[in-house]
Amino acid sequence: MNTELFGVIVTFLITILLAFPLGKYIARIFKGERTITDFMNPLERIIYRFCGIDPSRKMNWKEFLKAMLTINMIWLVYAFFLLLFQGHLPMNPDGNPDQSPDLAFNTAISFLVNCNLQHYSGESGATYLTQTFVLMFLQFVSAATGIAALIGVFNGLKEKTTTNLGNFWSIFTKTITRILLPLCFIMALILAFNGTPASYDAKDSIVTMQGDSVQVSRGPAAGFIAIKHLGTNGGGYFGANSTHPLENPNYLTNMTEVIAQVVIPVALIFALGFYINRKRFAYVIFGVMTVGLLLLLIPTMNWEMNGNPEIAKMGIAQATGAMEGKEVRFGPAASAYWSIVTTIISTGSINSMHDSSMPLSGMMQLLAMMINAFYGGCGVGILNYLIYIIIAVFISGLMVGRTPEFMGHKVEAREVKIAAFVTLLSAFLVKAGTAVAAYLFATHAGAEWAVKPESWLNNPGYHGFSEMLYEFTSSNANNGSGFEGLGDNNIFWNVSTGIVLLLARFIPIIGPVAIVGLLANKKFIPASGGTLRTDSVTFGAVTFTVIIIINALSFFPALALGPLAEYFSMHS
Q1: Quick check: is 421 in a domain?
Q2: How many Cβ atoms are within 10 Å of 325's Cβ, its own excluded?
Q3: SS3 state at 269
Q4: What is the residue range of 442's domain?
Q5: Residue 4: which H helix or E strand, with range?
Q6: What is the predicted pLDDT for the residue at 211?
Q7: Which of 38, 43, 279, 516 has a CA 20 to 30 Å removed from the CA of 501?
């Protein structure tokens, strides 16, 4: 077997082997059972007392969402003003300047919503203060917010009839103290011992083997990179993200980082089964998501490992595959695996330049973000999948002439309307944003406020359209990766993607929480001979079909104008 391919298979198997016990551990935490991290109890009590929180207070779905949205609004204001004045604040040994208002607006929102769409370079665009106390802080709380919302949904699904989704503050706090902090500590140690910086020293001066004097950026990178992946955030401490040799020094760290970004989302699927005592239902979800992953991953790895066919036509051998934009220490197989994993997971970190991928590989990356429900980000992946389940239940009910039911509760017009709105909103944000950007670029309109649209693209034509489509798709999916041929640090891109980021983060969280809150409050209907089983392989296949049809209808025209047109133009 090809050594690179073997490395990818081992990486995936280790991820699943770690995710299963982690899922059981997560379920035990929120069930209130004894765990190895019970020593955190005193710290949690101090936090509750200091913040005036009653962790035993029950919350209905409206109170739960109110708590989540209120604290997120406070964090947004806090982050915006620190980024706006970071150049005048301490912990800035490299003398990095303030961020402009539009860039601070985009950066604060992006890290708040677990996207980390970076329109700046980490070394020069942020200071040690903002990297640590704004960006790293937001990477913790944004991941905890997503997981807390999911556990609230678990609470609604667990009971026959209830108005209680749990206490947001208690769930949120335990997510950080019991899950994210311990895992980040372990991962940061692995990175630091392999050469990732973990200090607050200023740039170092070195002399290369060629005799050149070079300034090398460093700082508290190890901890930042740990939560970047474990929290499915993806923001790079350095501008080059995990292609940077200090952010991802070797193949061991590459495996560690790609495992880290997948392990919690997969563990939460297993946790669902343990928490609500429906293991078969969780296994069906895991199976559908894994099939979706493989259908995106296998073709991508094949295209990247076989290289560019146009170069092959010139008689030039490509023994190592399509290496443009990739690091030689990882190779095309590990890079292709990362590119699909990071887009289905909504992490958005990179160990190769997605802009240099083969056209159809780029299409697979786009599809992964457009679907946004194969594993997905911390918590929100299953929330997105729940929307597809509600639609699948509704369609199945119509097919058999029976009122749709899910988990013993009738799915009525209100729940279906919410699910349809969330689904349609995603397609609207991506396509409307791309259409406006394409119009401005084509007409050179709005140069006064959009900073010369004609200068946005290094690659006009089909690939340039893909770059703009990718930017809005990444924003909508809370992903953060990009086709970096796009010049995006200007007022238009900072403001437009910032608005998309906010809407695409919170509405897909509000929708599922509201649906489950409404369902859980209804009378429980015991299963009968005519009840639709949602834990069957058949229903899994129906849900998968719904996912494919909805996304094909929503996004195929846009993909045809971008990566598909680029692919066929290569062979014309």
Answers
A1: yes
A2: 15
A3: helix
A4: 378-570
A5: helix 3-31
A6: 80
A7: 516
